[in-house]
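Thread: Putative zincin peptidase, structure

OP (GT): Posting the sequence first so everyone is looking at the same thing. Length is 196 residues per the record. Can we get the structure tokens written out before standup tomorrow? I want them in the notebook alongside the other entries.
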Amino acid sequence: MAIDYKGHLNSLSDLPKGDLPSQAVQYDEAGDLNELVEAVLPWHWPVLIFILGLYLVKSLRTGEWVHLPTIIGFIAIFPGLFLHEWIHALCFPRQASVHIYRKLSQGVLLAYSTFPVSRNRFIFISLAPALLLGVVPLVIWSLSMGTGIFVRSCLPFGAALLFGAVGDFYNVANTLRQVPSDAKVQLSGWHSYWFR
């Protein structure tokens, strides 16, 4: 597998175009970044409720509210965002060429490949960072009775990186709703396509 950090992305229209089969069907999805932001906003609420629920349950159970570890956890978010994209990249098949881009002025970091993958692999690629960097730290934090800085910093770190994965949840929801289970998924430009 080749993973290439491309750096700054001038425009979303600069994303590579894949060689799509003639029967490829474009997802019904956001047409640009502004539409994507609008589409993923509702996904923030269930994530926020989940995180606040965990925080409330644990704080009531232990009588401990978070302070210094919150700052440490938030500082760790920035490298965590880049790690999020590397996890996406590492989940592609070995034969794939994956590019990592950033467009920080619009809050965009993305791992991108035009290599076709199965529907289930695409879902796995989309969810892996949220599970590893969001859910796992939150589970560690919520189940641990420890009060060390590492355990307590898992809350803000996991919460922020789970919150930052709402675009991935949007992709998974679109895939589950639109793509037959035996189909392949491929990115081309800004859009996702499926075909058999």
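GT: Both are above now. Quick notes for whoever picks this up: The helical segments are 33-62, 68-90, 119-143, 149-163, 166-178. The beta strands are 2-8, 25-26, 97-103, 108-112, 117-118, 184-188, 191-195.
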